[in-house]
Design brief:
Largest sheet: none
Helix content: over 70%
Radius of gyration: 21 Å
Order of helices and strands: HHHHH
Shape: globular
Number of domains: 1
């Protein structure tokens, strides 16, 4: 009789865990689809700018890039913005509909990775299309490379690096939004400073002192890290950022 009870209890526990996983997966899917719709519009607009502006402005160095490298900088801003929207647009909605904070956190983090990869995948496909068009017509696509990682060496390296880097900006935006959402103006100010330091450390992992051009009041000169060390540093910073966000969202009061 006890064996039957134990079996039934184990079966119920597995069912509960399965249901929890299903909820987290559904949150991830819903967030990914919503944010990816925004991303498709974003990529389309940036692609049109990439094609049209050089026809009228020929002395802009920023357009002498592969499209993957060109869209990288603007994707940072895009991911920062949707990260900021995370709490105000989604937290109250999901928790108000019975979703736990943990499932919201998992869904938001997983969807951020998915959106980052999706944007870079779209950019890579469009760059491939440009090269094919260049092979078949007189059109000559740009063959230059980005500042941080040469996209001429291997497509996989910049793809992974760019994807990881833009996820970090989502985390930074999310950190800012949870600061304002939970603690108000003072907490928001603290998280803004923390987010600036966070993205600065991320950029320095790949770009060394060049990343500090945005922070003219800081005078630090550091060498560029080797690729393996930069990758480990970036992953470590990502894990740290998500850990902090989990702590901040774990018991955050929700504004319905």
């Amino acid at each position: 009789m006890s064996d039957v009870k134990n079996t039934s209890r184990a079966s119920n526990e597995k069912e509960v865990n399965f249901n929890k996983s299903s909820i987290a997966a559904k949150v991830t899917r819903d967030l990914f689809l919503t944010q990816m719709k925004w991303a498709v519009w974003f990529v389309g607009i940036v692609f049109l700018v990439y094609l049209i502006v050089p026809l009228f402005v020929t002395d802009v160095d920023a357009f002498n890039l592969h499209f993957l490298a060109f869209i990288f900088q603007s994707t940072k801003i895009f991911m920062l913005v949707i990260g900021i929207l995370s709490c105000y647009a989604f937290l109250g909605y999901f928790v108000g509909n019975g979703i736990t904070r943990k499932d919201y956190f998992i869904g938001s983090a997983a969807s951020a990775v998915g959106v980052a990869v999706g944007i870079m995948a779209l950019a890579s496909v469009l760059q491939g299309v440009l090269h094919i068009v260049g092979m078949l017509t007189d059109y000559t696509p740009s063959t230059a490379h980005g500042d941080a990682i040469s996209v001429e060496s291997a497509w996989l390296i910049p793809f992974v690096v760019y994807s990881l880097s833009v996820v970090m900006y989502y985390v930074a935006g999310w950190l800012v939004s949870i600061g304002f959402y939970r603690y108000g103006g003072f907490g928001g100010f603290i998280t803004i400073i923390s987010a600036l330091i966070y993205v600065m450390m991320t950029d320095m992992s790949w770009e060394g002192e060049r990343s500090l051009q945005l922070f003219g009041f800081i005078r630090i000169s550091l060498p560029e890290l080797p690729l393996p060390l930069a990758m480990v540093t970036t992953v470590g910073l990502l894990v740290l950022g998500l850990w902090v966000l989990r702590k901040l969202t774990k018991r955050v009061p929700v504004k319905i």
